[in-house]
């Protein structure tokens, strides 16, 4: 089945289960893999832990979780089994979180051992080779035990549950079986104690280790756990930040080099996805920024890896070219658009003098719209565009609304560039995120003077602010009147004084407080307004702003053509305006047809300008 964090029901859910042809391609691929590989009965059940021999050799489950939380499941994906050595990767991450990287590094190495996972051998400086072999995993349990004592296992179980997105239990029978037969692990533990790697209470540490290996999971759980690693430590199903991105990187590194026992080199060569296997039959594989895979089949090869699970991983990597070292991306696609504001103004309507300044100084504002996750390569390309190909624009707007993430390296490069541009007199304006955005925080933290950065949620607001700066710098806003004469209205252009006086006589003066709604979408369109002072915003019901209007402009003019209002008009400041009822105006138009014709021509010109502006924006985006 396929699932989302919030499962669908009813007709929407039924759509996913009707006919094979409606299944997503990845779902079909996993179904085909399951059908093909389930016939492979080679391999043996693990026998060095007696209870594991009771596993059903026919069990075979596959689950894949994307980083947006979509779950694909095939076969026995909900069959429980013990996590065994798959736990090592996640307990290593927990040890890093609990005692810190320096302490862990002093206790455990990170090099492949070249030997069996249960080898009783240490490095030349008497440390375990890495946290993926038994010696290193027991040492990780010891580090956690030193901090939490008797609460160590509960900390482990709780952390693994957070990775899985649900509470995980323990198979007591397997735990008892491992405890009764785990003499080789006891030998490893006492060797570690001999070199002061473990604390005095060796048996208690071993019990933590035995219990963590006996935690019950499913293939689905492993896929969610893997996707949490792939998603920089955020569980994509629950949305919880389980572990930090820094720890994720260290964990995935060791999984890559040592996660598949003494098959790790072959695995990296053939599959190229960080992974960890366990003798319970599970495999967990995490491809950063893309997916997490969990498989379960208890038949093992001579490396103690699941036979069917290996085949699924190899097929997935080969079919979709997922090897982590075979990546291809064009950094130039990170810039969706690069333009000045000629013909692409904000939604703020301007007085003629103000618009003239913007038309003459349009190149003073440069806008770059970014798309996709920003990393070292894409930000390097952006910074080169900004520094080696400058248009000498004193106002630079960079829009991040299509950017879901930025790496630390990318934020570092961008921060340095914005600092340098600020020193050269460029005002940087960033748009597309809220103040709480992680992308904004990362950039601001790496800019020498973040207070000099301007931040806006909407690109249109950023463009409007930049336009105001240009207008102010070049003599605008000096002749703004508190009250505009109707002769300045574009809708009333070319009307003589007598005609305008007649319009005034038909109108009523209205006053509105800041925040007051003047016109409501859906209500009858029975009047139009001439704004004399103050500012108003025209907005859709969703809150999206269509326009900002100032003195000398009209709103509600579409009432001449429409029967109901299509948008809200809200006072941004104290507003004074003249309201002209349409029924009264209709009588006037019948008596003065020439005046009516002028007004209709003016309305057509206004609508044409709006259409030209909209087409310019469409043409701009389609050009990239």
Structure description:
Helix content is 42%, strand content 16%. It is an alpha+beta fold and 624 residues long. The chain has a 6-stranded antiparallel sheet with strand order 1-3-2-8-7-6. It has a 5-stranded mixed sheet with strand order 9-10-11-12-13. A 4-stranded antiparallel sheet has the order 14-21-16-19. Helix 3 crosses helix 11 and helix 5 crosses helix 8. The radius of gyration is 33 Å and the shape is elongated. The chain starts with a strand and ends with a helix.
Summarize the structure.
Residues 491-585 form the Cyclic nucleotide-binding domain. This protein is an alpha+beta fold and 624 residues long. Helices cover 42% and strands 16% of the residues.
Strands, helices and their partners?
Elements: E1 2-3, H1 10-17, H2 25-37, E2 61-66, E3 71-75, E4 81-82, H3 87-99, H4 101-107, H5 134-148, H6 152-164, H7 172-181, H8 183-194, H9 202-213, E5 216-217, H10 219-230, H11 245-258, H12 264-270, E6 275-277, E7 282-287, E8 291-296, H13 307-320, E9 335-340, H14 352-360, E10 365-371, H15 376-388, E11 395-402, H16 408-423, E12 427-431, H17 438-445, E13 454-456, H18 459-473, H19 497-506, E14 508-512, E15 517-519, E16 527-533, E17 536-539, E18 545-549, E19 554-555, E20 568-571, E21 575-581, H20 582-591, H21 593-622
Helix pairs in contact: 2-13, 3-4, 3-5, 3-6, 3-11, 5-6, 5-8, 5-9, 6-9, 6-10, 7-9, 8-9, 15-16, 16-17, 20-21
